[in-house]
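REQUEST
  id: r-88c1
  op: predict_structure
  target: H+ antiporter protein
  payload:
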Amino acid sequence: MKIFHNKNFVKLFYAALFSQMGTTIGNMTFAFYLLDHFSNQPSYATIAELMYSLPTILVFFLVGVVADKFDRKKVAENCDWVRAGLTIVLFGALFLNSIPIIFLILFLRSAVTKFFFPAENSLVQGILNKEQYAQAAGLNQMLFSIFMVFGVGIGAFIYKTVGIHGAVIVDFISFIISALLIKSCKIPISARLPNGQVKWKDISFKSSVTDFKDGIVYIIKNRLLASLVFGFFIFGIVNGAFAVLPMFTMKYELTLDNYEWYASLFALSLGLGLLTGSGIGTVIAAKFKPYQLMVFPIFIASLLIFFLGFTNSVTLFLAIVFIIGTCLGPINIAIGGWMPKIVHPKLMGRVSGWIDPLMMFAQSLTLGLIAILFPKVIASIDYLYYGMAVIILIVALFYALTLPKLSRAFDLKEKKIKRKQQTNPNIHII
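RESPONSE
  id: r-88c1
  status: 200
  body:
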């Protein structure tokens, strides 16, 4: 593949992989740690997940602006260095065995993480051409699936062997490798600073709010983009539910003993499904419209999630999860390849800056509701699966009614602009 000839893409890709892998391993082992030490308080594991999503409330209006106004390479690299430093502090805090302090450090580390991906995603857009976007999205999804398959399993293995401290060390090493990979990239200044050089003294709270508002105005004016961004909000609900429900299902319903092992098998099944779906999606992406790779898999996934609430068999549960993962693969490829085509490079950071807050808000809302409802109000986990299935089904129907028409309208607009570009090369799709 020609995309592998781009050394910058390869380095950025693996940097994102190591960064996310370390975080995932750490997150999973902390959930195991809390469930083991506070088994009568499952809300602790949910609160730990909230520490990864709530920081968005503090930095949501800054992340996209920082990615668009400052050197994207330095922003991504420094995020890794800062998280590595906080991980050292977290390692020391574990010896104090103070849950509030641990939650605080997790909160701060997550806040820094919010700045990483908008900057890294914007860099990738700046070093590839439009024809490579879908291919890059497929490759990103496939390797993400690979790390998901092995990452959580390694996390469970580390927790069982060297405990939570070993997982924190893996976190630290992953952030260091990611930072060094980004540091070694040689990216043109036009991709790092598409809006020109900006100094800190030129940034104020008022200007940051204005830039952030520009992002939402840009999204709202582009109905196709607004529809895709709405989908991210719904996916945030799914992420929040899947962050804790499988562990609760294994610990309190299906496998009271060895729930860590079976929770790892859940991640393995989902990851293998994502890997399979990503492979299929990468092959067929050129043969189908992006919305076709979204509507049908989302509809099938909604039905399968509903069936998760019915099953009392671990084997059947894991088999259904595998198929759900297979459905998610093409969806992620479709969105990952579509977004860069419809977003102007100068605004990619601000658009990305809205996606994460929406997802994290939905994820935090879901986790908060689960912490309140289970097990005091809703004693059965099954009803949580049913509710999630209904929400996903609504999204599938919404996309089926809107995306085909919006896609055709965008294609016509793109053709008109391409014709105008023959006489005026400075015209862009905004």
